Every structure is written in C-alpha cells, then in structure tokens.
C-alpha cells in the first residue's frame, strides 16, 4: 500500500477563505450565513459556548463546499457569529488530512492510499 499526499487547498490564495478563521481550540466548524451552505438540515439544538462564556443555541448544520475535495461536514449555522470557524481537529479527522503552515500560506494536504 502506497500512501500519497495531494494538496487540496492553499488557504492564502483563495478568496473563498478570506472570512474564515482556522481555530485549533474549536470543536466544531461554524458558518454564520445559511445561504452559503451546500446542504443543511434541522438538528436538535446544540449549545455553542462563546469566548465570553455566554452560550447560544443553533438549530441547523450542514455542508460547506469549497471544492470537490475540500468541504466541511456538519458545520453549525450560527448567525450570531460575525465570522466563520474551521475546527482544525475536525477538519484533519474528517478529511484524513494534514495542515502545513508557512509564513504566507496554509496548505491542506489530503492523504489517500492506492493498492499497488
């Protein structure tokens, strides 16, 4: 089995990512605009704890699609936020990927296997 890596996203070069924050402490992806979800569904309410300690409830989650290979599943719709969060741990786990940071870019590399 050969493990290969391919770059699926260079965050610094894409305007789609200009209003997203890569957050290492977030447990979930958060999107504040429902119209930018590819698909969404009503969920049982989820409490989201804000940095100031307050909690807000969200009732929708869905998929945010950046490309065929780069997407966020189960992103929470939270209109009370003024920004969008990508949970680094959730992203790395769901896409079986790694993030590589440099001075001017963030690369998302997907891992996949081919049987030889």
Structure commentary:
- The strands form three sheets. A four-stranded mixed β-sheet has the order 3-6-5-4, with no helix packed on it.
- The protein starts with a strand and ends with a strand.
- Strand 4 and strand 5 form a beta hairpin.
- The protein contains one helix and nine strands, in the order βββββββαββ.
- The model is unreliable at 1-8 (pLDDT under 50).
- The protein is mainly beta and 116 residues long.
- The longest helix has 7 residues, at 88-94.
Low-confidence stretches: 1-8
Describe the strand arrangement of the main beta sheet, using strand numbers. Answer: 3-6-5-4
Structural class by sheet pairing and helices? mainly beta
Helix content: under 10%
Over the alpha carbons, how many angstroms does the gyration radius reach?
15 Å
Order of helices and strands: EEEEEEEHEE
Summarize the biggest pleated sheet. Answer: 4 strands, mixed
Distance between the termini: 6 Å
Shape label: globular
Number of strands: 9
State which percent range the strand residues make up: over 45%
Count of helical segments?
Answer: 1
Q: What's the pLDDT, averaged over the residues?
A: 78
């Amino acid at each position: 089995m050969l493990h290969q890596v391919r770059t699926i996203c260079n965050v610094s070069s894409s305007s789609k990512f200009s209003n997203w924050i890569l957050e290492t402490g977030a447990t979930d992806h958060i999107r504040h605009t429902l119209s930018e979800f590819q698909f969404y569904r009503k969920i049982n309410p989820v409490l989201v704890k804000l940095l100031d300690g307050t909690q807000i409830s969200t009732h929708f989650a869905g998929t945010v699609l950046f490309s065929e290979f780069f997407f966020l599943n189960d992103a929470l719709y939270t209109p009370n936020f003024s920004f969008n969060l990508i949970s680094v741990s959730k992203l790395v786990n769901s896409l079986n990927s790694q993030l590589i940071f440099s001075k001017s870019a963030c690369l998302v590399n997907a891992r996949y296997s081919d049987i030889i």
